[in-house]
Amino acid sequence: MMEPESFEAAAKDEVWVQAMKEEIKMIEKNDTWELTERPKDKEVIGVKWIYKTKLNADGSIQKHKARLVAKGYSQLPGIDYTETFAPVARLDTIRALVAIAANKKWKIYQMDVKSAFLNGYIDEEIYVEQPQGFVAKGCEEKVLRLKKALYGLKQAPRAWYSRIDNYFMNRGFRRSLSEPTLYIKRQGNDTLIVSLYVDDLIYTGNNEKMIQYFKEDMMKTFEMSDLGLMHFFLGIEINQEKEGIFICQKKYTETLLKKFKMESCKTVTTPLVTGEKYKKEDGSEKVDGSIYRSLIGSLLYLTATRPDIMFAQVCYQDFMQSPSQVHYGAAKRILRYLQDSDWAGSADDMKSTSGYTFSLGSGIFSWASKKQATMAQSSAEAEYIAAAATSNQATLLRRILEDMGEKQEEPTTIYCDNKSTIAITKIPVQHNRTKHIDIKGVSPKLAEALAAREAIRLAWRFQWRQVVLECDCSTVLEKLSLAAPDLSISSLVLEDIRYLLYSL
């Protein structure tokens, strides 16, 4: 079903008329505003209707949603609002929570706060116009004075976060210092963990009675939708089984292939051509930049569950300003792949790409691939910069896992296949190709753990993960042969490597 672009179009369809009535009913039930005279010394902010069809994981219609939003772009800073920032959960944290639940065989549940932003209290004096289709008869000149936040206001996200944060803190939860949207409650040996993503909550723990009490209390305090077991979250499909918890974006991938007319394309086994380097100016014909940017942006969203395409997606981001036919064809190779740290990796600026993966239990839950800010003058420097970034992420993840009750008693080992990098980490020696390096703050424990590992083991563990971050499978197999000659790899194919990657 097409979503109407205006109130006039929506008013012709009873489905959307009912959706608007539901929105007004929720606003009035929440005591969000009051009708009053138009102020003479205050600007009145306009409002508009936004229409959205919400879908289930299988693509079927869940509901038609009409949202009344304020035209916040007309607000004046310091007068209509002050603080606006509200934290949002990291995907790394959400995947870590899923990994812990899978390890401990806990069930993960999900709830949604209806019209969450309407629950936030505001300090400023704000007036808005009456919404189209719902102007009070005989009071056409009057306006609405807000008691609580309305969607579209600059301060609405912060007002909602402050309200829900107070709820958790008043009920004995502890907020994570490293992730302000992660809340943990412990009673003896019982644990309840809640992760908040704006108006979506996922929660898990080891005591079903404690979980049930939390759900009932939330539903008494806010207008909630109980979604049961977590199965579809932020566009990610979650399948909770006895064998474990599995996440994917199958429906999104199918939609993406259809959007770019690639559902019947010839498949490939890797998202990148081995050894291929692309330049910003390659002499080929230019293509529509908006289509190219749409493809790259869509692929970025897919990296939430597909670390194996992250490196390729990052490579093609460099060409979004002026893409060519070659760039577009190369980016579409990732779609063909879906249908089934290097030194001087960029041919334009010679900057390397840092990448890392973190595993917990039987799979990885945190990953990244990002071009380095500076040009490394040696492979050792490129690897060192990557190791420093990895250690920073490790420190953050250790704190988050500690907050979830996973004690970090042993140092985190960072695997790297560059002996010089390991030596620099252990003893910051000054040589011609290392004396210029800004020795970034690597945790002593992490540095010690990194330096203590023997080279072959480091190479073996690291190179499996290089499949994800560099997509250069032939190079990986060649290095594996040199690093571990006794390892039989002649029969390994890409699917086997991917399986091993998630098993290590």
Automatic annotation (TrEMBL):
Transmembrane segments: none annotated. InterPro entries: DNA/RNA_pol_sf, RNaseH_domain, RVT_2. Residues 442-501 form the RNase H type-1 domain. One of its GO terms (molecular function) is nucleic acid binding. CDD domains: RNase_HI_RT_Ty1. Residues 30-273 form the Reverse transcriptase Ty1/copia-type domain. This is Retrovirus-related Pol polyprotein from transposon RE2. It comes from Sesamum radiatum (Black benniseed).
